[in-house]
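Objective 1b: paired records.
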Amino acid sequence: MEASTTIRKMMAGNKIVVPTYQRAYSWDTPFPKSDRNTQTNVFLEDLEEYSKSNASTPYYFGHFLFEERNKEFNVIDGQQRLTTIVIFLSSLFAKMKDIRNLTDPEEICYEDMVKRRDVIRFSTVDYDNQLFIDYVIERTKVDHNGLDTESSRRIVRAFDFFNERLASKDEEYLTKMLSIISEAACSTHPVQSESEAIQMFIFQ
């Protein structure tokens, strides 16, 4: 991973995992017909404001801290943002596929940031990961049965929220949002040892 990079380059060719010592997904999502500000709707509103701003610099997603281990990258800091990015991208690509077939560059972008063949680019904590795969990535689960943890319910609410918000959006909006996220700037810092990773996790 490069120190200064983009979201797409950070994820492409890598497998990013939330380790067991991390807390699970904790970002809130507004309930239907609620105007309460939560992390997920602020996440989307910030992207939409940037989209309308004609800014000359890339959107900035902040700093991500990783432990490099066995050809995987464990997230030490930034997993809430990264989980939300992947949930949003999965919803975005699903909506694009409903409108038309992905172009070749879009298909490669999907493979870089979401899934390439059997390799899923991002995995959440073990006890939520199968739900994350089935409901968000593969979309083979469509009901809300068996959501045993609050974090799994938060994942489902976030994905449903993005699906609802994207339902009426046109192709121009979708392709622009994909471009903003894939080209968004970020910085990374990988460490090599678990003890250093845990120390930095506690410090963060």
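Objective 1b, second protein:
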Amino acid sequence: MGMPLSLFWSRSFLLNRFFLWLMFICNFLGTVYGYIWYGNQIEDTVSNHPLWQVVFVPDSPTASLFFTITLLYWLFPPQGNSRFVNGARMIIEGLAVVTSIKYGIWAVSMIVAGSMQGDPLQWEHWMLMASHTAMAVEVLLYARFMKAGVWAAVIGTLWLLLNDTVDYTYDVFPWLSDRLMDDLTEVKWFTYGLTIFSFIVGALALKARKQT
């Protein structure tokens, strides 16, 4: 008799230490790669924009960083009952959920939109679509085990709205395909709309959580 598929999204499987370490390593390496990927845009921002805007440039790797830190909370559970530690954990988890959903979907959407306007899909595009889809899927699988509640998703959403506003006010949004630059207004409003969508989905996922 085969192994039931439900095992792969069960608590015992997802919170198994071996699997958590595997997830941590994959997300850590993906985060590092993501910051390297944004390297040229970070350098351009440092050279041509106020320094405070740099933090708003690497969207996806920062989302991945939040989830990577979240994995550490399961690998090394905080001792004691410190309000500061618990509050920081909940905020990071809330940020991980809404940002991973948003930028996972956003990156795939931009690649697909570019290809529909004539951009050839290279192997890097397929890799990015797979990794960003995984960002959104994994955080939804783990949301029910997080301690964060809806208020943490609200904080994460406020961060996203600030990020969106800085991106499209000061032109530090992720570099787009040349074919999408004439659709920048549509991209902007899609991005804002995706922030609200990510809040709704993330809040619902966290509301169904089970305390670890």
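Residues 83-116 form the longest helix (34 residues). The chain is about 70% helix and 0% strand.
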